[in-house]
Target: Response regulator
Amino acid sequence: MAKTIMIVDDSSSLRVIVGIALKGAGYEVLEGSDGKDALSKLTGQKVHLIVSDVNMPNMDGISFVRAVKQLPAYKFTPIVMLTTESQDAKKKEGQEAGAKAWVLKPFKPEQLLAVVQKLVLP
Model:
């Protein structure tokens, strides 16, 4: 059975690029256009990993991570931040919120896939 990964980014072109890489590696993909939209789509189905941007309208990535970690069904879902933010303070804030990894944009699809494969639980 394919593993499901949610991509949360306000850039539709970035969701397409990440989606192509993930689908090419055999993953199912869910998409959210920002934190609020993504939260509304987390309805109890199994999501094996979430890839989220930090800077988004309505609900930013760090607030989104905090909200996901409050949901019993997703408390242990690994979250990877995919962002242009490289400051240590932001990374620390993301880790404290519950993010497991930090990948900088622009990224290489194989770099993202390597992180995903490490974090997706069997």
User: Anything to note?
Assistant: The longest helix spans residues 12-24. The helical segments are 12-24, 35-41, 61-69, 88-97, 109-119.
